[in-house]
């Protein structure tokens, strides 16, 4: 199959190359060598007739042929020569037959009109195309357009994104007269003839595409704004899965399209902003590289450049889901692509000013099911004493809540005033809000001002955005200022230059540490006790020991949360510049060349500081990282199109690019300090540890696409791309650096080919076959070197990961078929895609037997098959003349994934390990990505849990627990519009996956959740069986007395099965109510438009997940991993208000 | 038009050939080094070995050998011999990792023509392989650490085949270091470059390993021990003082910071000291107790190990927090241990230079002085310490080994190895222990070997016996 595709593509490339050579030799296009030096027109015509063998006719009443003309002698076509000679005349040159040219007077007529939408609002920026002359104008800011035309009869076509095209035939234009044509646009529900930005920024009509795409408009991203705008993609695109880092205010998201095909590592979609790929520059997930479970440091999510795009600046987002769609992006597009186009300025009178203001408030939406019946204590203790007292020994140092019941009694307890044991017994009480009170409401203010304007030559758009965030953990949050500039300039008819530049400064004085570790807030949250008030901790230094000793009354494991929030700071200040400059030169109507230079650059200065007496850094710590990240790419694209006949049109684009990626990180560590409270490298108590890293790679590419259409209802695309990736070069060879990817896409509009029943308004079928290869984008994996041994002067050591000099690129072959059907006058639409893809020769970092000398080795291995279905539905149940409109849309996605092969030598591959190797995501042949294995219950043949001495038996064997990828995801959205009011909401759901919850496990081990209440004091008989001596089973009748052991065995960390829960959920994801002011009202205030909206995000969640949010990711070693929840932050509910004003 | 085509064609052509230009240089890793001299590799490798040893000494040896009791009734309590399969991973991974560094030190030394580095590499290899085989039994030896040559799944070799190879290595090292010049001092955290001391360490290790297999071929071992001690001692210099002990003494300055120094105190003192460990020291009036135990309610008090589920005692004395940065915990092989090795050999009549009593008392004395204390008056005459020549051999061995147990405090898995070999010191067995308190004989192979080196794993198990804690390794087998 691959070979077939390859040959097809080679043929296609040959085909389009030959097109340049064959040019039809029409008479007016023949080249003559002509010049005139102050010669009369009449004489000039005579000369021309001689040179061309053509006759030139005109009326003397229309043209004064005695006027003198001059023209430098040069080789030009006849038509061009005439045009230059007649450039001051209002004459049209018309070739009437092979040998005759007629010059006729062209006293033009005018076509004007206003374009409005269904609400009678003017629509600016609409393309108005005159079919016969191929002229195009755009409507201005008031929706008005005008164009001069020769007298005649024309067909007028409008095109505007997200509106149906209009076609008005037989519009008559008379000389010297103005003809009025007002047009009403209908918003399209499924943007059929919409122009879609496809790979490499090539704009295509949706109907011509052989693969499924999805376009989202700016409102869909801004209507219910979240801290990370990509959250708004949830539930709107079938086949899109967001993995959230759950990393705090700057939390990154990883976008996965169509399931994971790569066994490890780079499996997220390519992100392209205005032609600039940002994944591997500013957009890389920039968490600090520590793992989430009890390391010396904790991961921190510093956010990525993707988060920093202002959603108000986005014109639209195109999602190219499959390899077919993204084949032209080559190796980086192997996992699909998200193409973001930012807004540009429009031609208009004066300068347009738009003001957007958004305020969002975040509140914690769910809590684990905490118990408030028993207080601090271990093993069912029935008394309490803070320190040794007359009541007995101290019970203060446990973090468990297996202690005395709250029964109105009094004990010697902690006295927050003296910060020591109270002298009197005080009432033993639960503090139900003590965890909650630590947190606060988060709030985010986003304000932006946009200026835009333009004339025939130049347009610009400038936007300024300020974001101010305070997060739910005190003293955390960030600020951001963004300046975005877009400008285009037509130098002349042929040359256009354009630029888009986005500068962002994002800064934070503190971003929270994530994960399960002494210094993370959520660790404290698990360890805090129902019998203690969180407010006792506010004064976090021990009396008289400011900056030296913290105050924490109980177990010494957790750090004081106020100390964490106020003193254990993680700072960041990032300056990022993303942008491009491009020039387009139109050689002719049919041939153009685009040259572009793009850069994604950022410099991030980070630091972490820890005061004295923190559990992991007793003598304090200060670390700094300076991160320089830069990706520069230069590319060109030649575009040629031609109508071969009335029915057959072809176009060819070909281009190439050169890309260089640089990533430098300079880290210095002072892991103990001399003076407390001074955070500077100069205060280091020991030798500073440097941790430098330099990374560089380059990718060069050539690519081409040839498309042909027949009668505007049958379309074929053939693409080919070759990449050369330096990552696969070795010291001796570049044999493996080159790889080729072809694709073929077919699309047919059945409804235009055949006469279909009337209720079918549109029917399209499509098919696509593509091959996509991919190298890694991690350099230096092809040659053996020794690693630096930290802190040893000149010390080196063997690497833990063995490089491989023979690495080949991976290869995905994908097949996709789909259909797009619309019924009942476009009131109901359904879009279905079915796909299958095989990925083989993956570059894997695989675990090997350490006795071989290394822990991991890079190998080419594996074959993974993804099969799936994506369905998008939309409908307009009600669309009344009086302005009431109800639209519905829904998505459904199911993906099945099967591991067909690993390497010859491996039948198991550990893709990810749980906390301290508890459980693992294991790939086995025949299994599926995301299969979770770990210890679980011993079960009798009938499935009942086997008990021994009253406690469940948890053998060492690794059992299959479940899969961490959902079986399906679905969403349903509704939108109601009545006159100026709008109401919309979106619900989405997922089903069929599980996740390991460390939060639930630790809380259960410590007796803090209500599931650990039964049996306290009296014991419990577990439901299950015991195995008799003869091997048979009988019901368990033994009473378990030790509740700590009983519940730890059931729900604790080591019982992977017991600590794993379903992540099924239904969420009310978005809701919005808005009001758009009437133009009449606004004009009084000098405004052009104004909308005010209130909205909510993640308003309600229905789930059995015991932690906070079933949708979690975990920041681990700098990547967002799935399957294991390791101390997630609370989930939040957002309420917001936004205001959009146009002046 | 035609010209344009030519231009484009030419451009394409040029571009294609230059599409990978410079890639070879671009993909050279600037963060790492293509070459490594022995002096660059030695210090990090030795430090890593000692770090790994200390970590498992604290976690496994201390619990099995009743130094500490990590109180609790959940699964995986090592003091109750409930040792999870996964406990075997860490040491396997850490030890083999460093063996590849010692390999490269030897190869580098060959290129440099440095006999000293060759000898040192051989000693380190023999040492680490002995730890591996004593912990697991049969292990990959001949084909181990050959990933660079493409061997990802090395076969396992029999322990009885491995031991003679280790002896060969130590013989070679002794010869190589005979004329050896010192190595750069900064590359050697054990002896600051002194090749003579490395030679002594190698020969002392030789004695340790000979004794370890002595039950299997007593004549052979005895002959060699006699050669080293009696017949040809001039050619086999051994450690002759505490100062010559092989130990990585943590200075507290990076990179020589004790791995425990960064622990949270709470984790450090979670395991409580066991009766066995505390009571002997108390009875002997041993001054080392001040460095090894905290006072609980005014007294040094241990707790019983191996107690049954549900009868958890209240924790008492613990290891002091000061030990977290104690330089002496980086012990590999000390002078006192040598004296006890010789005492045993003498008691068994294998050597005649010196007496068992002399070696024993010298071992006891140096065991205490090593920790910076003078030997208290009459310590050697204490009822439980005093050597009597007419004791039965087993009782002499108990005397030797109970003292040796303290010399081996926090020294890799050595207490456990010696207990498995000799059954000494006689540990009390709690009622909570399974199998009548039978001490585990080995650790499980890492679980992940079943998927990463499956066929060889299965073959090894078929030869050695089930991959469980109680399958005896070759030198333990009757």
Overall pLDDT of chain B: 92
Low-confidence residue ranges of chain B: none
Number of strand elements of chain A? 63
In terms of DSSP E residues, the strand content of chain B is under 5%
- Share of helix of chain A, binned: under 10%
The amount of beta strand of chain A, in percent, is over 45%
How is the largest sheet of chain B built, in terms of strand order? 1-3
N-to-C span of chain B? 93 Å
Task: Please count the helical segments of chain A.
Answer: 11
Number of strands of chain B: 4
Helix-strand category of chain A: mainly beta
Rounded to an integer in angstroms, the radius of gyration calculated over CA atoms of chain B is 26 Å
Give Rg of chain A in angstroms. 34 Å
Shape of chain B: globular
Distance between the termini of chain A: 58 Å
Which descriptor suits the 3D outline of chain A?
elongated
Tell me about the biggest sheet of chain B?
Answer: 2 strands, antiparallel
Could you tell me the mean pLDDT of chain A? Answer: 87
Q: Which structural class do you get from the secondary structure elements of chain B?
A: mainly alpha
* Chains forming the largest contact: A-B, 90 and 82 residues
Largest sheet properties of chain A: 22 strands, antiparallel, barrel
């Amino acid at each position: 199959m691959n070979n077939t595709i390859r040959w097809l593509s080679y043929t296609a490339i040959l085909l389009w190359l030959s097109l340049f050579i064959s040019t039809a030799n029409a008479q007016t296009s023949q080249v003559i060598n002509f010049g005139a030096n102050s010669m009369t027109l009449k004489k000039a015509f005579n000369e021309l007739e001689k040179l061309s063998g053509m006759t030139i006719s005109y009326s003397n009443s229309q043209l004064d042929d005695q006027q003198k003309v001059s023209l430098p002698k040069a080789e030009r076509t006849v038509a061009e020569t005439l045009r230059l000679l007649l450039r001051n005349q209002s004459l049209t040159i018309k070739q009437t037959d092979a040998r005759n040219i007629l010059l006729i007077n062209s006293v033009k007529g005018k076509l004007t009109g206003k374009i409005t939408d269904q609400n009678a609002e003017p629509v600016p920026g609409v393309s108005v195309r005159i079919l016969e002359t191929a002229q195009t104008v755009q409507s201005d800011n008031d929706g008005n357009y005008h164009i001069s035309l020769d007298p005649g009869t024309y067909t007028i076509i409008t095109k505007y994104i997200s509106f149906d095209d209009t076609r008005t035939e037989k519009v008559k234009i008379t000389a010297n007269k103005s003809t009025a044509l007002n047009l009403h646009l209908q918003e399209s529900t499924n943007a059929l003839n919409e122009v879609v930005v496809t790979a490499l920024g090539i704009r295509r009509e949706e109907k011509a595409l052989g693969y499924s795409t999805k376009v989202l408009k700016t409102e869909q991203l801004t209507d219910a704004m979240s801290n990370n705008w990509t959250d708004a993609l949830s539930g709107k695109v079938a086949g899109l899965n967001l993995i959230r880092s759950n990393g705090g205010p700057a939390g990154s998201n990883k976008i996965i399209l169509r399931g994971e095909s790569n066994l490890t590592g780079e499996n997220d979609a390519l992100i392209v902003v205005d032609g600039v790929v940002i994944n591997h520059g500013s957009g890389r997930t920039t968490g600090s590289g520590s793992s989430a479970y009890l390391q010396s440091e904790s991961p921190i999510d510093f956010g990525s450049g993707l988060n920093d795009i202002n959603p108000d600046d986005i014109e639209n987002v195109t999602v190219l889901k499959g390899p077919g769609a993204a084949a032209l992006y080559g190796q980086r597009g192997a996992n699909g692509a998200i193409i973001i186009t930012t807004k540009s300025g429009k031609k208009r009178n004066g300068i347009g000013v738009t003001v957007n203001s958004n305020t969002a408030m975040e509140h914690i939406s769910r809590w684990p099911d905490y118990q408030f019946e028993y207080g601090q204590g271990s093993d069912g203790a029935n008394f309490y004493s803070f320190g040794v007292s007359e009541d007995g020994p101290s019970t203060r140092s446990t973090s468990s809540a297996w202690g005395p019941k709250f029964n109105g009694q009094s004990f010697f307890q902690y006295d927050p005033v003296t910060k020591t044991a109270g002298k009197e017994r005080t009432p033993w009480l639960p503090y139900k809000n003590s965890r909650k009170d630590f947190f606060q409401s988060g709030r985010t203010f986003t304000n932006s001002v946009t200026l835009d304007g333009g004339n025939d030559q130049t347009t610009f758009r400038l936007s300024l955005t300020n974001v101010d965030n305070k997060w739910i953990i005190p003293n955390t949050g960030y600020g951001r200022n963004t300046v975005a500039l877009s400008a285009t300039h037509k130098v002349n008819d042929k040359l256009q230059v354009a630029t888009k530049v986005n500068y962002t400064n994002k800064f934070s004085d503190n971003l929270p540490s994530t994960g399960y570790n002494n210094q993370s807030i959520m660790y404290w949250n698990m360890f805090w006790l129902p019998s203690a008030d969180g407010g006792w901790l506010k004064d976090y230094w021990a009396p008289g020991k400011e900056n030296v000793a913290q105050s924490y009354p109980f177990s010494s494991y957790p750090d004081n949360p106020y100390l964490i929030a106020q003193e254990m700071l993680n700072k960041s200040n990032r300056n990022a510049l993303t942008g491009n400059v491009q020039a387009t030169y139109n050689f002719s109507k049919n041939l153009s060349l685009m040259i572009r230079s793009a850069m994604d650059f950022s410099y991030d200065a980070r630091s972490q500081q820890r005061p004295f007496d923190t559990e992991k850094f007793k003598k304090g710590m200060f670390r700094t990282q300076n991160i320089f990240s830069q990706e520069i790419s230069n590319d060109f694209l030649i575009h040629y199109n031609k109508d071969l006949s009335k029915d057959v049109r072809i176009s060819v684009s070909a281009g190439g690019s050169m890309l260089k990626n640089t990533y430098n990180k300079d880290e210095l560590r002072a892991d103990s300090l001399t003076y407390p409270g001074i955070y500077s490298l100069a205060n280091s108590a020991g030798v500073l540890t440097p941790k430098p890293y330099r990374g560089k790679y380059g990718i060069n590419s050539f690519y081409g696409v040839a498309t042909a259409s027949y009668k505007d209802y049958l379309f074929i695309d053939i693409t080919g791309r070759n990449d050369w990736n330096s990552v696969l070069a070795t010291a001796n060879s570049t044999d493996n650096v080159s790889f080729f990817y072809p694709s073929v896409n077919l699309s047919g509009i059945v409804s235009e080919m055949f006469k279909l029943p009337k209720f079918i308004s549109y029917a399209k079928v499509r098919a696509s076959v593509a091959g996509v290869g991919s190298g890694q984008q991690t350099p230096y994996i092809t040659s053996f070197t020794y690693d630096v041994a930290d802190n040893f002067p000149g010390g080196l050591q063997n690497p833990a990961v063995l490089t491989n000099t023979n690495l080949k690129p991976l290869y995905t072959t994908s097949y996709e078929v789909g259909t797009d059907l619309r019924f009942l006058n476009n009131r109901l639409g359904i879009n279905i895609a079915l796909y299958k893809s095989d990925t083989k020769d993956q570059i894997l970092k695989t675990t090997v037997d350490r006795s071989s000398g290394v822990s991991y080795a890079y190998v080419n291995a594996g074959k993974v098959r993804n099969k799936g279905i994506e369905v998008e539905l939309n409908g307009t149940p009600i669309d009344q003349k009086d302005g009431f409109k109800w639209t519905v849309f829904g998505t459904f996605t199911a993906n099945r994934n099967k591991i067909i092969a690993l390497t010859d030598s491996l039948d198991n591959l550990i893709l990810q390990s749980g906390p301290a190797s508890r459980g693992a995501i294991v790939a086995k042949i025949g299994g599926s990505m995301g299969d979770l294995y770990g210890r679980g219950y011993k079960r009798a043949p009938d499935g009942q849990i086997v008990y021994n001495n009253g406690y469940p038996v948890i053998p060492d064997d690794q059992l299959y627990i479940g899969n961490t990828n959902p079986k399906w995801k679905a969403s349903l959205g509704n939108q109601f519009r009545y006159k100026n009011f709008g109401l919309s909401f979106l619900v989405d759901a997922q089903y069929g996956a599980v996740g390991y919850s460390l939060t639930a496990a630790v809380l259960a081990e410590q007796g803090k959740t209500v599931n650990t209440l039964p049996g306290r004091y009296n014991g419990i008989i577990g439901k299950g069986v015991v195995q008799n001596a003869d091997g048979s089973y009988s019901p368990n009748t033994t009473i378990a007395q030790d509740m700590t052991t009983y519940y730890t065995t059931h729900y604790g960390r080591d019982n992977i099965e017991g600590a794993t829960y379903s992540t099924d959920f239904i969420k009310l994801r978005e809701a919005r109510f808005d009001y758009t002011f009437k133009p009449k009202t606004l004009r009084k205030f000098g405004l052009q438009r104004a909308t005010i909206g209130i909205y909510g995000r993640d308003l309600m969640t229905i789930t059995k997940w015991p932690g906070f949010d079933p949708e979690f990711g975990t920041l681990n070693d700098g990547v967002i991993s799935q399957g294991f929840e390791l101390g997630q932050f609370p989930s939040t509910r957002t309420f917001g208000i936004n205001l959009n004003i146009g002046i | 038009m035609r010209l344009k085509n030519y231009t484009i064609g030419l451009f394409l052509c040029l571009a294609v050939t230059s599409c990978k230009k410079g890639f070879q240089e671009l993909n050279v890793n600037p963060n790492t080094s293509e070459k490594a001299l022995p002096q660059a590799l030695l210090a990090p490798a030795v430090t890593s070995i000692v770090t790994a040893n200390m970590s498992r000494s604290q976690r496994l040896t201390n619990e099995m050998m009743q130094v500490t009791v990590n109180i609790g009734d959940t699964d995986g309590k090592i003091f109750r011999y409930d040792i999870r399969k996964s406990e075997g991973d860490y040491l396997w991974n850490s030890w083999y990792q460093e063996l590849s560094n010692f390999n490269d030190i030897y190869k580098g030394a060959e290129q440099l023509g440095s006999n000293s580095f060759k000898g040192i590499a051989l000693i380190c290899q023999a040492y680490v392989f002995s730890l591996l085989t004593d912990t697991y039994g049969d292990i990959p030896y001949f084909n181990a650490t050959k990933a660079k040559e493409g061997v990802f799944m090395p076969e396992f070799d029999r322990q009885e085949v491995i031991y003679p190879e280790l002896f060969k290595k130590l013989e070679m090292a002794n010869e190589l270091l005979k004329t050896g010049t010192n190595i750069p001092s900064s590359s050697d955290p054990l002896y600051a470059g002194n090749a003579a001391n490395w030679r002594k360490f190698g020969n002392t290790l030789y004695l340790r390993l000979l004794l370890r297999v002595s039950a299997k071929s007593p004549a052979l071992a005895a002959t060699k021990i006699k050669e080293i001690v009696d017949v040809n001692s001039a050619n086999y210099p051994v450690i002759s003082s505490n100062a010559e002990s092989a130990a990585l003494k943590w200075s507290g300055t990076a990179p020589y910071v004790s791995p425990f120094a960064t622990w949270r105190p709470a984790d450090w003192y979670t395991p409580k000291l066991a009766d066995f460990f505390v009571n002997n020291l108390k009875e002997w009036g041993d001054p080392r107790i001040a460095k090894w135990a905290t006072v609980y309610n005014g007294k040094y008090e241990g707790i019983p190990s191996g107690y049954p589920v549900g009868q958890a005692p209240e924790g008492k004395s613990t290891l002091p927090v000061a030990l977290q940065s104690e330089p002496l915990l980086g012990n590999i092989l000390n002078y006192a241990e040598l004296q006890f090795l010789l005492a045993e050999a003498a008691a068994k009549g294998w050597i005649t230079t010196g007496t068992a009593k002399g070696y024993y008392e010298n071992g006891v004395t140096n065991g205490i002085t090593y920790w910076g204390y003078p030997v208290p008056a009459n310590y050697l005459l204490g009822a439980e310490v005093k050597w009597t020549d007419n004791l039965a051999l087993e009782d002499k061995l108990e005397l030797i080994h109970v003292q040796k147990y303290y010399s081996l405090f926090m020294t890799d898995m050595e207490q456990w190895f010696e207990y498995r070999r000799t059954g000494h010191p006689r540990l009390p067995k709690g009622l909570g222990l399974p199998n009548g308190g039978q001490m585990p004989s080995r650790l499980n192979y890492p679980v992940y070997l079943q998927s990463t080196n499956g066929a060889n794993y299965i073959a090894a198990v078929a030869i050695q016996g089930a991959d469980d804690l109680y399958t005896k390794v070759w030198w333990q087998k009757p």
